[in-house]
Amino acid sequence: MVCQTVKAGVECAFMSKKGCGFNGGSCYQIIDSCVGCNKIIEHSTGKYCMVYPDPSSKWAVGGCPTATHIKKDLSGSSQKINPLKASKRGSRK
Question: Which one of 3, 9, 27, 77 is most buried, by most CB atoms within 10 A?
Answer without folding.
Answer: 27
